[in-house]
Amino acid sequence: MKVSFLGGAHEVGGSCILVKVCDKNILLDCGIRQSASKDPLPDFRTIQECGGIDAIIISHAHLDHIGSLPLISKEYPNARIYTNNMTKDLMKVLLYDSLKIMNNREAEIPLYAELDVENMLNRIFTINYMVELPIFEGINLTFYIAGHIAGAACVYITTADGSLFYSGDFSIFAQSSVEGLKVPKLRPDVAIFETTYGDRLHSNREVEEERLIQLVRECEINKGKMLIPAFALGRAQEILLILKKAINKKIIKGINIYVDGMIKDINRVYKLNPVYLRNSLAKKILKGVEPFYDDNIIPVDKKELREKIAEDKEACIIVASSGMITGGPSQYYAEKLASMERAYIVITGYQDEESPGRKLLNLLDSEERILEINGRSIPVRCKIEKVGLSAHGDKGEIKSLVNLLSPNNIFLVHGDGEIIEGFASELSSEVRGKIYAPKCGETYDINIRNPRKQWKKQMPNIIKSSEELNETNLEVLWRFVLENYSQRLFTVEDLIYIWSGNNKIKQEDIEKTQRLIMKCVYFETDLRRLFLFKAKTSEQVEEDTKERELKPNELNELVNEYFYQYAFKKAGLIYEEKKVSLSFDFPYVIDKSIYEVCEKFEGNTGWKVEISNKVNINAVEDLMREFLYDADIKKISFRLEDKNVIAILNSEFLVEKQKLEEFKEKTGLDLFLQNPGINIEKNLSSIIEAEDNAIEQNQALKLIDESFAEEEFKPYKKGVKSNGNRKYIELYFISPMIGERYKSKIKDLVSKTGWSMKISEASNQNEIIRFAAMLCKKTGINLKKNPSFNASELSVELKAESLEKDKIESIREEFEYKTGFRLKG
Questions:
Q1: Which residues form the Metallo-beta-lactamase domain (predicted)?
Q2: What does the H/E/C string look like for 229-257?
Q3: Which domain holds residue 744?
Q4: Are 360 and 380 in contact (CB under 8 A)?
Q5: Which site among 417, 483, 599, 709 is 20 to 30 Å from 45 CA-CA?
Q6: How far apart are CA 134 and CA 142, in angstroms?
Q7: Number of structural domains found in the chain
């Protein structure tokens, strides 16, 4: 076996390794160097001298592992490229973006054309984790989970002449978005390990995540701006999930988080490939839950918004690519924020020696803080912080993997020269294998006299059915697997083989079967690897097929998962109707996409979802007072039936039309200002006029009674009045706000009776006070005196003997619903 190191040895960048085994040349990764002072390409001359390449294997989608792939694939179009679905989709995003950047740079000739990327993508053959695939006669390839980023794989090649393990970039510990490395006890003769952090032990991940959250809170308190430059692939998703979790726990609140750059495209690919993500995250995505964005985490889709974020005084957090500030929006924001005293730049990942990110870190201990970026010298007044969120294994993790595999020949790559040499020296006293610290351009001829024996997956019992696997016969496969293999874990390919006896499986058949198995009751996924399945026990299947009533806590959890992005105020569970009632502050402006989510929820749970159209008048008043901060408000009148609210003012006040439009956009309500001497309220609550041909008075009053007989709220009094020209019927409800709920019914009665009608503006003060006192007594609230009625503010105030806030809160909604008045206390 011959191993040639063409890039990424004694350095970070341009990873590219040529392996010659069984007369076949196999290329492991094909990256670029992103440092401006180095040749971006690996040593392709060696490939030509060795007779070209027969296959290419890609470990993961970072540019230092794929950046020159279109170039070499164009040169050797017959070499098939092997990777997994996630990495293929990510490669498409990164390589097209890289091409766009090269085309936009002055005086730079792009390394490849768009057609080269397109042709290269068509040469990719995807395989799943833990599926052994013969890529040539006598040469088998298997991928294992590497951690690091979504789709990252450790590569294992087995042949009669020996076996080789290539770690790619890896991390043993799980992150928020992906599981950690999962490799069985393989038996490689040769192993190549990344050594990015071979000189250190990482700090505790949870401590670092907490530190990031505390920095965000500090920025929020100081009303500053924070830039978190992040690698678009991997690190950015980790940061967003950490921050979103803190928002959901209400640790972070009241500050917007903007997402800019290629991160948005990577987020989309993550959502399309949930089986490559951490189990908990994947399940949310499969249920239709948005994993990255919400009301506070906002994608930046327009240049105007980017400029507004940088120039406005608004406190905010910006997560933007690139991670080293070498380009992309992060460079734009860094130039703007660096000189701001209340700004923060938080570095979270590896920084190349010549990158602006590294220059910023070097300023931490510098007295003169000047940042040279984009040809400009910027005085640095912002706070610079470093948070360790590495996705690479540290010294301890690398040693653990080496000890697990115990290879006879160990190659250390992907790290600074000094780090690799120091780690090699330390490792040599702890392991028995030969240790090499290769440099770029070096070739090693490894004589493997006695290749280590490999463990073979045994599946002696198969069904060998000629039928296509479907929902009808899936139970047959389940019973067979349970009887012959108990609860052993299998890939989709394994299960297809057990069913059909066929080893040559089409990609579309794999995807179709995976969808079938994931939604069935007979198999379940492994807790940490969604691509592995095991047969459920008979008891589990019986329990799962039995109709079971969801418990309140289970239902509430599901409601939160499905609907949290719509910021609902409350979810009421109506068991007798199997219905969830969602309440919102401003139901008129809920995003219409909620109805699609309602359908998904009903399909998965059997529970219907009702969107309450009741407006939270407290929230409306709070927002209105915020909008009219300088206005002298005497009284607020709600006309929710007509979707309007009136601010009755003590002194004249003018407001811009734009403000009123913004209020309507947020609430769905029209805001009217009634200045002294003008009676908008009266105009809005005028008599509902009827045509002629009124029926007899008593008949009209009887028809009103009959019409309201089944309604929850009825007029407690009806009076016949005259406005000088003609008679009309005035309807008295407990309050006019309750009457407004029946405006459409009243309009219908006007049409049927021929009588004009009006909702009385009077409120039944005694009944409202009596109802408040009754609720207090029922709830055990001890009042110092009777509730205080305030007609101008449309409120009732309670004076309790002691702090009874929780109890008052428990009756507030019922009181406001049944009276239309606000409850204070």
A1: 13-231
A2: ECCCCCHHHHHHHHHHHHHHCCCCCCCEE
A3: 697-759
A4: yes
A5: 417
A6: 9
A7: 7
Task: Please count the residues of the chain.
Answer: 825
Rounded (10°) angle between helices 395-405 and 417-428: 50
Answer yes or no: is pLDDT of 78 > 60.
Answer: yes
Cβ count within 10 A of residue 169: 25
* Tokens coding 449: 């006299």
pLDDT tens per residue, range 558-613: 898 899 889 898 899 988 889 999 999 999 999 989 999 999 999 888 899 999 98
Assess whether 312 and 362 both reside in one domain.
yes
pLDDT one-digit tens code per residue, 610-627:
999 889 988 899 898 888
337 contacts: CB under 8 Å, gap ≥ 6:
225, 227, 310, 343, 344, 345, 382
DSSP, collapsed to helix, strand or coil, labels residue 544 as helix
The residue written with tokens 């069985």 in the block is 184
Residues 437 and 482 in one domain: no
Residue type, 388: G
Cis omega before residue 15 (within 30°)?
no
C-beta of residue 2 within 8 angstroms of C-beta of residue 445: yes
∠ Cα 495 499 502 (to 5°): 90
Mean pLDDT of the chain: 90
Q: How far apart are CA 197 and CA 594, in angstroms?
A: 46
Write the pLDDT tens digit of every residue in 99-131: 888 887 766 678 889 999 999 999 999 999 999
In this structure, are 508 and 536 located in the same domain?
A: yes
Nearby residues of 320 by Cβ (< 8 Å), 6 or more positions away: 227, 228, 229, 230, 258, 259, 260, 261, 263, 328, 329, 330, 333
Are 380 and 277 contained in the same domain? yes
Output the pTM of the full model. 0.67
Say which residue, 202 or 151, is predicted with more confidence: 151
Confirm if 645 and 639 have CB atoms less than 8 A apart. yes
Q: What is the pLDDT of residue 37?
A: 66
Confidence of residue 286 (pLDDT cuts 50, 70, 90): confident
> In what helix (H) or strand (E) does residue 747 lie, and over which residues does it extend?
helix 743-753
Q: Which amino acid belongs to residue 52?
A: G
